[in-house]
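GSCFA domain-containing protein
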Amino acid sequence: MGQKLDYFKFQSLQNPFGILFQPLAIENLITNAINEKEYSEEDVFFQNEQWHCFEAHSKLSSPSKEDLLDSLNKQIKLTKKHLQESTHLIITLGTAWVYRAIETDTIVANCHKVPQKKFLKELLSVDEISQSLEAIFSLIKSVNPQVSIIFTVSPVRHLKDGFVENTLSKAHLIAAIHQVLNSNRFLSVAEGYFPSYEIMMDELRDYRFYAEDLIHPSQTAINYIWEAFKEVWISEEASKIMEEVDAIQKGLQHKPFNPDSEAHKLFLQKLSERQKKLQSRVSHLSF
């Protein structure tokens, strides 16, 4: 879905610390961003020839400790900037299962293939998740009172936890989200809930809508969910701009049989004029 927003040239930031699957990790990121945490050597560790941080996804990991710390600190500043300036914030929860590092008694965002014996696996209760979401609301509202917050539950199945355990986990997430959204205290900052998980489970309930791993949604399913999201959350005016962006993007991806032909040169000229015309209306667009 983040790739869709990128394709249509929305001003967005997707997963600044990589994918964070559980609510406490998301709360921790938002807390650290607002408090402008400065990451240091104490926050990283060396494992399997790379430096990692328990608070971030392995996509930020690096063979260089300095590069990892630099990335963490740049991303934390970027996160705060977007929290302060964004009009909408979409929070996707994946699982209620968490891992607690025994040595430090802290819940981690990612285990980075550290031996499992060094962690305790726990299922967050509905109340624990609700408290975390309430903290997220309060934190975000403190720096951006006008932002609209949209919650959704990831349709990706965490089958490594087990079929029953995955269902229980998703149930805890859904119950907690609705418990918070039904509280009058947070209605002013919450736009609501987008049912991506329910669409996948109820409308697309067939394995042909899954990728080959039978865990992730297929591209067909992603497109279907995107269309549902667009219909509800994207304005008619923005949709018209998206159509223009789509036409230009397809033109840029076009591969000519003869790049030196006059016809192709004319095509590129018209495409450039179309870009400039749209950019004069929407200044932030960059192709």
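thats it. The CA atoms of residues 97 and 123 lie 5 Å apart. The longest helix spans residues 65-85. bye
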